Target: Nucleoside triphosphate/diphosphate phosphatase
Amino acid sequence: MVVDKPSRGPREGDVITIKSYKHDGSLHRTWRDTMVLKTSENAIIGLNDHTLVTEDNGRRWVTREPAIVYFHKKYWFNIIAMIRDNGVSYYCNLATPYVLDKEALKYIDYDLDIKVFPSGEKHLLDADEYATHSQKWHYPPEIDRILKDHVKILVDWINEGKGPFSQGYIDVWYARYQYLMQQRLNDRR
Model:
């Protein structure tokens, strides 16, 4: 009898692809190279810096600054902390919890986003897009309820400076990324 070994998830320093989809299953956006900084039973923390992004229409662009990304298996949002000269800005996607396979980390993007500026000012974005897609793709009432509940959780995290919204979190994970990049440079010499 042959027993398959359980597949291991990505480890610190591994590079993964991230893919977001829409409710109808169509590919929305792909980030090609994200370095994994930490994995746990329920979460993945990574960083991308000058990463190639491909949109569903084929348009390509490169991110401008380092960004720490946070994905969780239980929360219906993911968080991107963009490290800029004027401070940290956050882009939070309301989305399904992530799944991970051999190809990529994947999730379904549900249109709504919360942008947080370095000043702490918050904006809910794309409510019109959410309404349009909700009708077009017939989002079930359960999805609507879950997303509303998770917007509240996310806003609480923002207001409390919890997790990715604390400066200490940003400092620790950005320093870890810099260390790993230095290790890679040293290994190439």
Remarks:
- The CA atoms of residues 13 and 36 lie 5 Å apart.
- Residues 1-5 have pLDDT under 50 and may be disordered.
